[in-house]
Each structure stands twice: as C-alpha cells, then as structure tokens.
Write a structure and sequence with these properties.
This protein has 221 residues and is mainly α. It has two domains: 109 residues, Hypothetical protein af1432, CATH 1.10.3210.50; 92 residues, Hypothetical protein af1432. It is built from ten helices and no strands. Helix 5 packs across helix 6. The longest helix is centred in the last third of the chain and has 24 residues.
C-alpha cells in the first residue's frame, strides 16, 4: 500500500490544478481521514478507497463555475486510464469511480458502497476544524468574498448570503455537515471540529464588538 500511495501521489501532483485549498496536502488529509474511518467501519476495500481519495479532485472547477456540479463525474472519468495503468481491475475501477463521483456535495449522487460513504465523510471532514477555517478563507480570497457583513456580521437581522460573505457559508453549509455524516466515526470527528469552529466564531464576535446569535450554536445541539 505504501508503494501504491507513492505512485498515486506522484501522478496526481503532475496533473492537479494550482488550488491551495485542493492541493496534495488536502488529498493526504482526506486519505488519512478515510483510513481512520475505514478502520472503524471494517468493510472497505482499501485499494479502492486510497485511489478514490487521491483522485477525487482530478478535475477541480472553481466554486462559482456554472458546471461545478459535474466536476466529480469528470474526475471519475479521468481516473480510468490512471487506474488501468496501475493494474486496478475493472471492478475496482468501477468502485473507485462511484466513490469519486458521489463524494461531491454539489453533485448530489447518493453513495452506495462502503468506499463511497467513507470518502464522502472523509472529504467533508477537511472542511471542518482548524483546517476547515483556513480553507474557508483561502477559497474566499480566490473568489473575492468578504469575511462578514460589516453592519451585521452574523446575520442577526438579515438573510444569510454566502455568495457575499464567507462567514455566512459556515452556517449555510459547513456547520450543517456533522449531522450529515454517514459513519459514526465521521460524525464524532465532525462534531469535535465543528465545536472548535463555533468557539472561533464566539471569539470573532467579541473582537467585532458584537454577539453571536443563539441560532448559530443551535446547529450543534
């Protein structure tokens, strides 16, 4: 498995886009998350899971691209020749393709295999916690989105709008992720990381001389 991982890392580094939020470190973390979950689940093909973890972002379209929802399907298709060259069987390639396609939040493809369920949880975990905070702001910077509405940072009296404000995205998507985890291990890790994010928001609100509305913390109850 170590040799296979090294081969996958080398291949993907030659093909991936220059996106700091979706770099080789992201892929390493997703694989680490997936491996942790798989040890608890005990029913995943680790060769398939590793391939899917390292190839799930082969095609990485901008968050605001009109065809963003197709990126995971495009990645699944692009993975075929790579896995063929690495002597994966047709069955393993099909399984890896499904896991890759189903990992995406925007694609809305139900995960139907252990590898697909685990990869989806593992990828979403990397949007949470300390890493999630850093990645949120890296993505926001590339899209010219502000940190928060200066007049109402935490949407106490306005509709949430994550097309304008980075912090709004936390409520609309990121802090919703723990309850959407499909594995017990993924849910446990996600809840811990989400609590850290909520603590960050509480401190941020103090530094902004305002208060975090109660409806934010209610997400984690």
């Amino acid at each position: 498995m170590k040799l296979l991982r090294a081969e996958l890392r080398q291949i993907v580094q030659q093909q991936m886009s220059q996106d700091p939020a979706h770099d080789i470190a992201h892929l390493d973390r997703v694989w680490a998350n997936a491996h942790r979950i798989a040890r608890d689940e005990g029913n995943a093909n680790l060769r398939v899971l590793m391939a899917a973890a390292y190839l799930h972002d082969l095609v990485n379209l901008p968050k605001d691209a009109p065809n963003r929802a197709e990126a995971s399907r495009m990645s699944a298709k692009a993975a075929v020749p790579i896995l063929t060259d690495l002597n994966y069987t047709a069955e393993e390639i099909k399984a890896a393709q499904h896991a890759i396609a189903a990992h995406s939040y925007s694609a809305q493809i139900p995960p139907e295999t252990p590898e697909a369920v685990i990869l989806r949880d593992a990828d979403r975990l990397d949007a949470l916690g300390a890493i999630g905070i850093a990645r949120t702001f890296m993505v926001a910077g590339t899209m010219d989105r502000g940190l928060a509405d200066p007049n109402d940072p935490f949407a106490a009296n306005r509709p949430l709008d994550d097309q304008m404000w980075s912090i709004d995205h936390w409520h609309l998507k990121l802090l919703q992720l723990p309850k959407e985890m499909a594995t017990a291990k993924g849910r446990k890790i996600a809840n811990k990381r989400a609590r850290l994010m909520l603590a960050y928001l509480t401190q941020l609100s103090k530094e902004m001389d305002t208060e975090l509305p109660d409806y934010w913390s209610e997400l984690l109850q």
